[in-house]
Amino acid sequence: MAKQRVLIAGGGIVGLATAYKLALARPGVTPVVLEKEAGVGQHQTGHNSGVLHAGLYYRPGSNKARLAVTGIREMVQFCQENDIPHDICGKLVVAADESELGRLEELYERGAANGLKGLKKMGPEEMRQIEPNVGGVRAVRVPEEGIVDYARVCAVMVDKIRALGGQIRTNARVEKLLRRDGGWVAETTAGEFSGDFLINCAGLHCDRVSELAGETRSARIVPFRGEYYVIRPERQNLVRHLIYPVPDPKFPFLGVHFTRLIHGGVEAGPNAVLALRREGYKKTDFNLRDSLDALLFPGLWRFLARYPSMCWWEIRRSFSRQMFCESLQRLVPAIQPEDLSPGGAGVRAQALTPSGELVQDFLFVESERALHVLNAPSPGATASLAIGSEIAAKVRF
Q: What is the pLDDT of residue 323?
């Protein structure tokens, strides 16, 4: 009997983890990953800081909370078993002043409700034993968090998928999706592929792929670029591990933070500014289709009207190292503008509703012989193996 084939659009870490879990749990299924780039993990996966998120920030009971908590433990085990560079260094979430103490306590309670282990409240003296240069008045230590080489994770997954009989096809951008004989045909730049089930893990283009499959684009991917600085080598001793702020619930983004990188160095950022190209990693990157897609979407203008001061602040900070540094000084007062060099950038595939609200949770939409992952930004990489298991269980022919 011929194996059933599952087409997976998108070869980022979520698509690869889904293919791996399908091949592992369903021997009668052949996953076929269709990736438009020449290699896997080139966009959100390859442009993040490599943080392993334990699930502190997410609403209890949400997909993000549930899958991040199980996902980080599964990812750590995967790294241990496959000699993938990682470091469970822990994170400090810092209340910069007294006004943030209530929100810090709420975060602690949320993390405990989500099942995080070893959370600890700390006063100034104990905080500075871990991070001598940290500012602030109190902190919560999250010992399960860490950093990892996600590119290596992807490379190992590719090997495992192929060893289990799955296929990875690169340079295969999906251009059409057609229903045929109860299944799907994907017309791509690498030829035509048929399958019995379709999984859309296309990240920055997931809404467009869903539209190709006949879905209505209610939520839209609006790309936000996160820009980073790196700390100059002689000043990297300012940060030992991970230092994060207490997020302000009035605003939709987390805020700038410090991340020690798995292969050396320390990153500071990101901000969040609208990208005029879905893969726009530079300020000058522009794509007419992508720009019109965002600028003609009413949800974007409602979002801007809801957070005008924050949006203006993020734009100004994008062009000012001094302003960026002032934000960082709330966490590490000793950091100075001359300590910072321009770093890389990532683009977040953020789903936005027509009413102007960010989709906060992972979003999975099921239809006949198809499943669409329509919102899986951070902690998507951390949770990818758990997401893969979740999706694999939903594949029904």
A: 97
For β-strands 120-122 and 138-142, DSSP reports them as antiparallel
Residues contacting residue 174 through CB under 8 Å, at least 6 positions apart:
9, 34, 36, 186, 187, 188, 202, 209, 212
Exposure letters 337-369 (e unless 16+ CB within 10 A, then b): eebbeebbbbbbbbbbeeebebbebbebbeeeb
| DSSP assignment letter at 248 | P
Q: What's the number of CA atoms in the CB half-sphere (13 Å) around residue 99?
A: 4
Q: Peptide bond before 379: cis, by omega within 30 degrees of 0?
A: yes
> Is a pLDDT exceeding 70 seen at residue 388?
yes
**Residue 5 in contact with residue 30, Cβ under 8 Å?**
yes
Same structural domain for residues 180 and 302? no
Question: Does residue 183 form part of some domain?
Answer: yes
The CATH number of the domain where 316 resides is what?
A: 3.30.9
Residues 249 and 365 in one domain: no
Query: If you average pLDDT over residues 280-308, what whole number do you get?
Result: 97
Distance between alpha carbon 110 and the CA centroid of its chain, in Å? 20
Distance CA 7, CA 303 (A): 34
Looking at residue 1, its pLDDT comes to 56
**Average pLDDT in the 49-53 region?**
95
Count of alpha carbons within 13 angstroms of residue 263, beta-carbon side: 7
Give CA separation, 356 vs 154, 256, 300, in Å: 34, 23, 6
Q: What is the four-CA torsion angle of 279, 287, 374, 3, rounded to 10 degrees?
A: -80
pLDDT at 124 over 70: yes
Which residues, at least 6 apart from 301, have a Cβ–Cβ distance to it below 8 Å? Answer: 356
Measured in whole angstroms, the distance separating CA 4 from the mean position of its chain's CA atoms is 30
Q: pLDDT averaged over the chain?
A: 96
**Does 305 share its domain with 336?**
yes
